[in-house]
Every structure is written in C-alpha cells, then in structure tokens.
Amino acid sequence: MINCPFSGTIFMYIEQTLTGRLNFMAINVKRPNGTEDVLPKDVHKWHTVEKIARETAECYGFSEIRVPTFEDTDLFLRSVGETTDVVQKEMYTVMAKETKFTLRPEGTAGTIRAMLQNGLLNEALPQRVYYILSCFRHERPQAGRLREFHQFGLEMAGSESPTADAEVISLAKTLLDRLELKNIELNINSIGCPTCRAKYYEALRAYFEPHKEELCDTCRERLVKNPMRILDCKSPICGEIGKDAPMILDYLCEECSDHFEKVKKYLTNLGIEYKVNPKIVRGLDYYTKTVFEFITTEIGAQGTVCAGGRYDGLIEQLGGHPTPALGFATGIERLLLVMDKQGCDFLTPKTCDLYFATMGDAALEKAMELTRELRELGYRAEFDLMNRGLKAQMKYANKIGAAFTVVIGDNELAEGKAMLKNMDSGEDVPVPLNDKFTANFDSVFIDRMMASFDTGDMPLPMFQTNGENN
Ligand SMILES: [Zn+2]
Ligand SMILES: [Zn+2]
C-alpha cells in the first residue's frame, strides 16, 4: 500500500492480470463508521486502564479468561433476550456454511458459555473471571456510540450471598478510584426475582395500559413481553408516562427484600456511598435482584461508566445447573473519555533510552552490537535505520525523545571509547565501546533516574567519570 497525496486515500494494488501486468486501482479505504483507531501516541492510556483493571481484579481473586469474538447466535438470543434492542436491532450476524454466528454484543454470555463448556463451575466456587474484550453493536452512528467498543468486565459464579454483591460493587468502586475518576455516583436497585416480578409486571401493565397508544412502538411491544423495560426507554414521552409508575422495590418478595437490605448494609460498612434509584432496570433480560450503575454527569447522556448486577437465572437458562452469578462491565472508551476530561494521570509511555548516531559501516555494526546488549538488559535502544547523515540522525534522536545519545565514528572506533550525552542536561560522559559499555550505561542511567526524584537537600550520588570507565 502506498500513501497517495490525497489525504486519507490509499492506493491499493489490486490484481495481477493473466498477462502478468499489474493493475493499480484507487480505492478510498477508510475505517467503517463507528470504529476507531488507537494510535501509538494514545495507546499508553489504554495500557493504563488495562493494567489497573487487571491488578484490581486480581487482588479480588479474579483470573483472566479469553473467549472467542463470535459465538453461535442462539447464545445471545437465549441470554441477552429476544426482546432487547441489542438482539432485535444491533447484532452483527453472519451466515457461514448454514450456521449463524454473531459478533459478541457483550461479554457475559460468551464468558458463561465458556465456564459451562469447560466445567469451571464444577471446581472450587465461587468461580471468578475477568475479561478485556471488544464488543460489536450496530448502533446508530449519530448517537455518538461506537459499533466496535471495548469492555473490561468480570463475572462471579456460585455465590447467592449478598456479600458477593458487595464484593463486586466494591471491586468496581476500587477500580474507578484507582483510575482517579471523580464525581461518580453509585446508583443501586433491586429488580427482584421471577416470583416478585410476576406481581410487579401485573401492576406495571395495569398502569401503562390506559396510555398504551401514547407509548413508542418498542414500548408497546415491551408492555406485553417485558414491561419493566419501558422505564428504561429513552423516548421523553415514555419517560413522562412512566414517571409515576409503580416501583419494583414495593413488590419485592421477602427473600429479595432481605438480600437488598444486606447489600446496602455491607456497602455502608465498606464506606461506599450509594443512592437507591428505582429507575435502574438494566437493558438486558438476564438480571435479577441487585443491579447497579456508576454514573457521571460529565459526559452528557452517556453517563454510565460501569454497570452490572446479579443474574441468578442465566446459567440455568444456558443449560447449566442452577447457579447464582453476578458481574459488571465498564466501557473502556467511556472511562478514557472521563479520564481525559478530568485530567487523570496515565502511565508514562516508554521512550528511547539510548540512540546511537553512527558514521560509516563499521560504526553502524558496532552500534548494532551494543544495541543488542542494551536490549538484553531491557533498555529501549535504537540506531539509524534510514542511512541518514549525522545531523539528521541527531534531529531524529531529539524527535523521539531519546534520553541519551552516543555518536560513533572512525575516531571513536579507533580509540575504543565515545561520549555518552545526556540529552536533558547536555552533559557528556566518556564510555568505553567494549563489553563494559552496558554496565557503564546502566550506572549513568540509574544516576539520572535518581536525580529525577525529589530528594530535598540530600546530596545526590555522583557518577564517577574516572577509574574503570576508561
Ligand atoms: Zn423475589
Ligand atoms: Zn418507549
């Protein structure tokens, strides 16, 4: 592929004709709507979230699981639910050899499928897994939502105890705190179990029935299949009608009510502030009892940065033994949006530690040899790959932010030593170009690291430029 002068357009070499002639065709290749490229200059932000997410999950006893990007379509029909927007409008489904596959629209279904298929639920309970993966939903692009987006999420299976709910919510809270997110509010609700929900659905249907004609098309359908989801509708008319709808919390059975009280008590014990919000019903069918969302008002209407809850019926629904379970997911793009907006800290991206500027083939070979030794120690070292002149090489070293440079030419090779230049301070230090080079560089580098710490009035250890360095 060759960059062409028209910005964003790429010329692709397409075909070789029967006569052996190459045909070039210009095609305007751009990424699909609703997808994003993460460029090298931004990837450290992703690494920050992924690293902190992994560390947080692992200190709560979760291990990583990796599952396929696509699954049998049936899996999502049976888990996410046939009445949901996700299944009805947003799934990317392909027919391949008469089998229907769907790109995962969320992470829970595939993760539970994998836990069942691999017998994880026969091992020590609770089973705790986390994942970092991409999801695919064919959403309207004008809503500013991505069609490929990324999630960090986790699932805990085997515990029906409210302590598990508190544990999972506490993990989510710890993660958001470690990412240094501010002004995030935890909203919780209980949407009960099938027993209490049957009575609640009756009450909801009775409430909405007189307004049936005013509801949006989707909600008219929901009225029959899943009236609770009308409360989740984004249409202002449905919102207005639902304002005084009966609340699930008034219909909880004794067990669900007791469970919810305990979750609230444990959260209070843990010092986690929350607000009970009866409007939180979650968009997917498989939730039971506790549901929760961490919400911020700082990114407009898409304010949910983390959402989850309990789904005690899902595993049985997917063919396993009845096993209570719960989890949550966070959208990584949304986390990054809030982090950027709030000026949160990100891990510093690794830059070049040492750049060799060389003159002549012999010097280049020396640089290649020393580079290899430095890399063995974990340093990021580079040399000229572009046949540039010395001046251009130094300019490049500046551009990539090299911490140190060494110039090697005929004189340096003849004398067996060169000058190591600290690019920040401009200081030069002589270093031998032999097997002592890496050890020398190591100590200079460590000195520079120490100098960057705030040591107050304490004198810094100085690097000795005499003795064995020569
Ligand atoms: Zn119940
Ligand atoms: Zn509606």
Structural features, described:
It is a single chain. The chain is α+β, with helices and mostly antiparallel strands. It has three domains: 1-30, no CATH class; 43-193 and 253-342, BirA Bifunctional Protein, domain 2, CATH 3.30.930; 354-469, 3-Layer(aba) Sandwich (Rossmann fold). It is 35% helix and 22% strand. The chain has 15 helices and 19 strands. Strands 4-8-9-14-13-12-10-11 form an eight-stranded mixed sheet, sandwiched between helices. It has a five-stranded mixed sheet with strand order 16-15-17-18-19, with helices on both faces. A three-stranded antiparallel sheet has the order 1-2-3, with no helix packed on it. Strand 15 (354-358), helix 12 (361-376) and strand 16 form a beta-alpha-beta unit. The longest helix has 17 residues, at 43-59. The model is unreliable at 1-14 and 459-470 (pLDDT under 50). Bound molecules: zinc ion (2 copies). The site of one zinc ion has 7 residues, from helix 7.
